[in-house]
Amino acid sequence: MKFRSWTIIVFALVVFATTESASAQTATITEEDYWKGIKQGHTATRAVFPRRETRKYESVSDGNVTYSRTEISEYLSSDTYRNTKTVVRNGTTNVTEALQIGRVRYCRENAMDWKTSGCYQNPPAPLDDADETKYALETTKDSLTYLRTTTFEEKATEKKAATNFATEDRFVLNKDMSIRERTIIKMLALTKSVTVRETDKYEYGIPLKPIVAPIK
Is pTM, for the whole model, over 0.85? Predict the structure, then answer.
């Protein structure tokens, strides 16, 4: 699967930025203000039901996607939700499903039998430690966008030289402070070639299928 070229991505971002610039206001903020806004977004989002969260992650090498992960979570309430994760690696697809109803969790892999043990998922890995980080807040009439840009260096090893990277993390909140979407792009600082792309999308007030216990 061929990954969209960096030129097209840059062009799209420039067009979007140009369109929004007339009404958007951007200001530099502190790290404390940035994390305060992120926390408010997650707190507001956790109180809204029903909602669907779609997260897509792609690892790219030489313009080709070498690994992809798509995770869809649907929440009917704070303790009733379903999660489906599809991972494609080296042409092999693995699907993991999980449900929570009250205090009971159910899970299965690749359509095998459901079980109620070993159903807790590890949290996602943190972003790489940055050599330099800048924070900004972009405000429009219907959204707040928290922007974190970083540069960092992966140290040299016996097999490869040190490599400089840049990361752009855009975190968009609706007017009510609930999360609208998030996009993280990691690229080589020298060539601007994308190596990792992650996108999160949040949908609210949409009809979801009932969630029932798969094991009686």
Answer: no
